[in-house]
Design a protein that fits this description.
488 residues; mainly alpha; 5-stranded antiparallel beta sheet; 20 helices; 5 strands; transmembrane helix
Length: 488
């Protein structure tokens, strides 16, 4: 629990300083080429009991609660930003990595742990299961900071968004095998298919319900729409979890559906989610850093075992999982090598490691400390070299084009209209035409065009060019028709 000799005002001041520091370190992480999660964790460790001693925190239950809520928010934000057209071609390879890949990784690391650390076979396999999956928070953050080819980035994102159910299932199964004298293996197998199937179904249903609800409800304040959307993420997770299904899978699937639907106040919802996801990520990693005690993490026993298992994970288990899971699929050896190296570990393994402590496993603390060390080395070694490796393997994608101008997109509630942003490309059918020649619906008005970072006030003779950012005022009832016209 938290222990401190400061009052409410001091706690608020501390929270403010931590958020400021958390936001600031993201700038340093980009310059250093280091994943931001490393710096967030270090902040937590520095202010913890083994550091400056500002906060003493050792409650795994609270850390688990914070971690789960933060992961729900991060998965929802990442899934809602994912285009189905991009992820669809790689869905089967991603699912193979998310299932068979996790099993292979877990088994190899688990067997190695038996001979490296003084654990029983079941405890060793539990450790392997905990570090078996890649981490959505780490992967989403890395993809935002780097330009990776679309196919590879989509595979990484889809895998990290869907592999948590397998890791959670394996973790809870091994905990049950350790705790129960006569476990029911058939029930464990049926549980996996229930978690995956029902989690997928709940995600689809609530994703469609959320999209329809956001578009049909008429709220007095536009600021309520992002909160309304986020509430469905929390609802989806809780409904799935209470049904003994995978809450993380349900949230990611629901987010995919919501993000690929036509939404009222879409821009406001996405910007709010992005900021809130960053805050959740900062809070989560700082809390996890607080939960770790550097004196234990950096002990010779933990460091020695952690380094050996990190080497097994990075250079043997993950490559074996990637090459075997993608066998026969249309991936070059360079792409498989990169995906092997891009198997970042982060918050999910640490949160799963708290399950062992909460369940009062005999060597739960040892497992947590080793997992924490593995996450640090994985994020530091793999995360900081992703861009370099992508460049060497010629897998760097084109620089993402984003407007450097600032134009606030708005929705006009009473008028039932909104301004949308659209960027033209080679496939846009209106390129080369003047605004007078384009047969827009009657309710449509092109309000502004940004070309080469310069604002153009459009008139009837303005010719649309490739790369233009169009800002279009449209009635909501005509928005779908406009979208179809622009992408015809």
């Amino acid at each position: 629990m938290f222990v401190g000799g400061f009052d409410i005002d001091s706690f608020v001041l501390l929270a403010a300083l931590l958020l400021i520091v958390g936001v600031t370190v993201t700038k340093f992480s980009a310059r250093l080429g280091m994943p931001s999660l490393i710096l967030f964790i270090l902040v937590g460790m520095i202010i913890g009991s083994d550091g400056l001693g500002i906060i003493y925190f050792d409650d795994a239950h609270q850390a688990q609660l914070v971690g789960v809520i933060a992961l729900v928010i991060i998965l929802f934000e990442g899934g809602s930003q994912t285009k189905w057209s991009v992820i669809k071609p790689v869905i089967w390879p991603s699912l193979s990595l998310a299932t068979f890949g996790v099993i292979i990784t877990s088994l190899i690391v688990g067997v190695a742990a038996k001979y490296v650390v003084d654990l029983t076979w079941l405890e060793s396999l539990l450790l392997g299961a905990v570090v078996g999956s890649t981490d959505a928070a780490a992967v989403f953050a890395s993809l935002k900071e780097r330009n990776i080819k679309t196919k590879i980035a989509a595979t990484m994102e889809a895998e990290s968004g869907t592999n948590d159910p397998m890791a959670v299932f394996l973790t809870l199964s091994f905990i049950e095998l350790i705790m129960v004298d006569q476990p029911n293996y058939w029930l464990l197998t049926a549980s996996f298919f229930w978690q995956m199937g029902i989690g997928l179904l709940i995600g689809i249903v609530l994703g469609k319900v959320a999209s329809a609800s956001i578009n049909r409800i008429n709220l007095d304040s536009s600021g309520l729409y992002p909160i309304f959307a986020l509430s469905f993420a929390l609802l989806t997770y809780s409904v799935a979890s209470l049904s003994q299904a995978s809450g993380f899978l349900a949230v990611y699937v629901a987010a995919l559906i919501i993000g690929n639907s036509e939404l009222t106040y879409r821009h406001s919802i996405f910007r709010f989610n992005e900021g809130f996801a960053w805050m959740a990520q900062i809070l989560m990693f700082i809390i996890l850093g607080l939960l770790a005690f550097p004196e234990q993490i950096l002990s010779p026993e933990i460091m020695g075992g952690g380094l050996l298992l990190s080497a097994v994970l990075i250079f043997a288990a993950r490559p074996a999982a990637s090459f075997l899971s993608l066998a026969g699929m249309k991936y070059t050896w360079k792409e498989k090598v990169f995906l092997s190296w891009a198997g970042l570990r982060g918050a999910v393994p640490i949160v799963l490691a708290t399950f062992a402590i909460v369940a009062d496993i005999e060597n739960g603390s040892v497992i947590f400390n080793i997992v924490f060390f593995i996450v640090l080395t994985s994020a530091l070694i793999q995360g900081s070299t992703l861009s370099y490796l992508a460049k060497k393997l010629h897998l760097s994608g084109p620089k993402k084009e984003t407007p450097t101008h600032s134009l606030e997109l708005i929705s006009i509630g009473r008028a039932n209209a909104e301004i949308i942003e659209f960027q033209t490309d080679d496939q846009t059918p209106i390129i080369g035409k003047t605004l007078l020649d384009i047969q827009f619906p009657n309710s449509v008005l092109v309000s502004a065009i940004v070309r080469d970072d310069e604002l153009i006030t459009p008139d009837g003779d303005t010719v649309i060019q490739k790369g233009d950012f169009l800002y279009i005022l449209v009635a909501r009832k005509e928005k779908k028709k406009l979208r179809q016209m622009l992408k015809a």
